[in-house]
Every structure is written in C-alpha cells, then in structure tokens.
Amino acid sequence: MTARPQDVVDKILAAAGGDCIAILTEGSSTNLRWANSTLTTNGAMRSRELTLIRFVEGRDGVRAGVIARSSVTPDSLDEALAAVERAAADSTPAEDAAPLVEGRQDPDWDDPAAETGPDVFAEFAPSLGRGFDAAPSAGRDLYGFAEHLVTTTYLGSSTGLRLRHVQPEGRVEVTGKRGAGNSAWVGRYTTDFSDVRPEDLDAELATRLGWAERSIDLEAGRYETILPPGAVADLLIYTYWTAGARNASEGSTVFSKSGGETRVGERLSPIPFSLTSDPGYAGLECAPFVTATSSGPTSSVFDNGLPLGRTEWIREGELSALLQTRASAALTGLPVTPAVDNLILSAPAASKSLDEMVSSTERGLLLTCLWYIREVDPETLLLTGLTRDGVYLIEGGEVVGAVNNFRFNESPVDLLGRVSEVSRTETVLCREWNDYFVRTAMPALRIPDFNMSTVSQAR
Question: Which backbone phi and psi does 213 adopt, to 5 degrees?
C-alpha cells in the first residue's frame, strides 16, 4: 500500500536530524488526443515526486543541498536522505541564505490528494465527437488535444510548516486545416471543462478558415496590428520571467537603471495599465505560498512557505515591483515580492471586445498567435518570433482575407508605451508558453506600428 504523502513528509523530517524542507507532489492527469477529426489516444496517469532540501550550517555560512526523486517509496527514503546530506556537504555557502519560514499548518493538511479522471470529459467528449462527424462535410480536418491535471502539493519543514495546495488546470487546443492550405488555431484554459464548448471552438475555426479563402501577399513593414489576448499573454509572460530585481540592479535587463538602480517607479505606458498576480483571482487561483525547488535570481529555497498575496507589478502605468526573494530584497532595498503563478493585465474602463476593435479598424492586421519567440537583446527585451495559424487583413472594419506570415521584432516593454487601444480583459490560454504558464487574463491591444520585420515562408 502506498504511504500517505503526509506520512512520507513527516517521516523524512523526523529522520533528517536538522533543518530540512520536503516538497511532495501528487499528480493525477487525463487526456484526449485527435488527428484527422478522429480520436487517436486517451489515457490517465498518476505521479509522485519528492524534492528534499537540506540546510547545513558551517563556519563559512549555510549550505543548501537539493535532490529530486520521481519514485518515492518507504524503502527509498534512507537513500534520499543520504543523497541530500551529500549534496549539502558538496555545495558552496548559499548567497540567498535566510531564516527558514516559521511553522504553520493548513487545516486541510491531512486531506488526501485530489484526483481527476476521464469523467471530467463527460460533456466535452460527446460534443467533440459531433464536431468530428460534421468536419468532413465542412471541408476541414481537426487536430488537437485536451488534458486535465490536478496536482496536490504537500510542503513540510523542520520549523513546523505543513502546507497543502490543490491545483486543478486544464487546456484544450484545436487546429483546423482545409486541405493543404491555411490553418487556424484556438485554445482555452479551464479548471474543470465545464466552461468549454467544442461547438464554440469549431465555430471560431470555421470563421477563420473562411477568412483564409482569400489569400493576400503583403511586404514586411510596420502595420497597425491588433494583438489578441493570447499573443499579449505570450509577450508578457516572457517579460514577467525576465523581471528579476537582482538582475535589474546589476544592470543587465530592460528594467535596469544606471548606478545599480532599477526602473521601479518609472512610467512604462501613458495608459494606466495594471499588471498583477493574485493567488485568489477568480478562475485563475494558484498556490498562496512559495514553493521553490531551486534557488536562482528570482527564487530561493530558503523562502519556501512564505505567504503570497496580490502583487502589483505595474500600477497605473508605472513599474511598481520586480520579482524578489528575501535575499535580493536585502540587496536592492525593495519589498519582498516573490513570483506568483498567474498574471493579469487590465486597463480601467476598457470595455470593448476584440470583435468591436476589428470593426473600428480602417486598415490593419489581426494576428492569431505568435510562436518561436526568442530574446535578441536583454537590455531592451527585444524579442523576435513568427506569426502562426492566421494573420488577417482588416479593411473598413471587416476581415477581407488572410495574409502571409511574418517574422516580428518587438520589445513588450516598448509596446506598452505605444498601445493606442485596449479591449476588456478575459481569461486566455497563450500559445507559445502554455506548457509552462497557463493562468493568464489579458486584453487585446492595438499597436499602431507593429514591426513585421521580414516575410516568413512558415505555414
């Protein structure tokens, strides 16, 4: 019989004989995959992963050893403890050393791990099947997948922490193709699939594939461009990942200022944007405490268990915070603001829909999504990448056809200063980074001069 996760954590901490943190995650997942409008695979999986962090005080400072195990059994715990002791002994003194967070226990600590299974698709799958049946007569093929994961995290420490968090998350991506021609993509984030209707996804694909019946070639250049919420999410997620206060204070990022200062307090946009992270944001709830399995510029294993709350990264258009550990906060003099696992961009009084933005466009481009995003210059956060699965020309408030793909070169931070219109904020699944970051709510943005630097032959 598999040991309860709480018992595994307690046993490890009792045997550690010193300062130690144990993070055990129980994962449960189920998925559907399809191609050529036919279900190809489905399955369900379980996993258990353990991260051990051992802290050893020496004359030259505190050393931290970290090990991870994907197979956790009672017989393997002695080996894991011996391995983490060796890792601590072999490490160098930790630059991010700080007192471990004092103990508190969640009221649901003793609850079992949450699970998911095929029943989560009880309404979604039949509707998806009806879409498969209708696809051939509509002249399109459907490709994609749907998956649902539930991860239960148990975090315990020798200082008495006993924290538990259940994280449900789901995503569905569908690509529609018509012959060997154009393709279109749609995606959704969900926590339980009760709010995802395959009929709605199919209708979006049909509209976009219809737009693509007319093909228009355009040259590279700067175009008025509407970035949909998913593309905005991809750009701002990357910005978030690079927003470390320590790196900024060292002069190596777009958020750096001369003299070892950061740009906190500087206006980034004339629009009073709010960019926030909030563990309690409705529909995008995430862990309300730090869970760090490694240390780096924006995370610290010493901070495990720190409470997380709503953090404003941009307030009324001004940069108000950067990613901070307790150690980096001591260096920069800024508040402790650890990373939170969601991201929300909004502007006050922004109420238009994406469709309303299109209808008010005299001439411009509408993107579907961006992909293969790569950093060119960290000091300006210049990014390059490609458009994918549909770039459409708008004339007189109507989409008149699909144009060729482009390579773009833009800085998300610079874009915030050039936005001319903002839609209302909505929960959205990004395209490029959804393997790593799925909880976002974003508006569409109108950019008057988005830089399509070259024409791309990618389809």
Answer: -65, -25
Residue 212 main-chain phi, psi, to 5 deg: -80, 0
* Cα 196 off chain centre by: 19
- Model confidence at 267, pLDDT cuts 50, 70, 90, reads very high
Question: At CA 64, angle to CA 11 and CA 92, rounded to 5?
Answer: 150
Beta bridge partners of 298: none
DSSP label at residue 377 = E
Which segment of 66-80, 130-144, 183-197, 433-447 scores lowest on mean pLDDT? 66-80
**198-211 vs 124-134: helix axis angle to the nearest 10?**
30
pLDDT on residue 1:
57
CA separation, residue 335 to residues 327, 328, 331 (Å): 11, 9, 11
Q: Which residues pair with 158 in a beta bridge?
A: none
When computed from its CA atoms, the radius of gyration of the chain, rounded to whole angstroms, is: 24
CA–CA gap between residue 374 and residue 229 (Å, rounded): 19
Helices 77-90 and 5-16, packing angle to 10 deg: 50
Cα angle, residue 170 at apex, residues 166 and 174 outer, rounded to 5°: 175
Q: How far apart are CA 327 and CA 97, in angstroms?
A: 7
pLDDT at 58: 85
pLDDT-derived band at 459 (thresholds 50, 70, 90) equals low
Q: Among residues 142, 165, 140, which one has the least CA distance to residue 153?
A: 165
How are beta strands 363-377 and 343-346 bridged, if at all? Answer: unpaired
**pLDDT at residue 330 tops 60:** yes
> Is the per-residue pLDDT at 81 higher than 70?
yes
Q: Is the dihedral of CA 360, 362, 367, 373 positive or negative?
A: negative
- pTM of the full structure: 0.96
For 173, residues 6+ apart whose C-beta sits below 8 A from its C-beta are 144, 145, 185, 186, 187, 429, 434
Burial of residue 103 (CB within 10 Å: 0-12, 13-18, 19+) is middle
Strand partners, 274: 346
% of the chain surpassing 70 pLDDT: 99
- Residue 110, CB-side half-sphere exposure with 13 Å CA sphere: 1
DSSP string, 243-257: -BHHHHHTT-STTEE
Structure confidence by residue, pLDDT tens digits, 268-310? 999 999 999 999 999 999 999 999 999 999 999 999 999 999 9
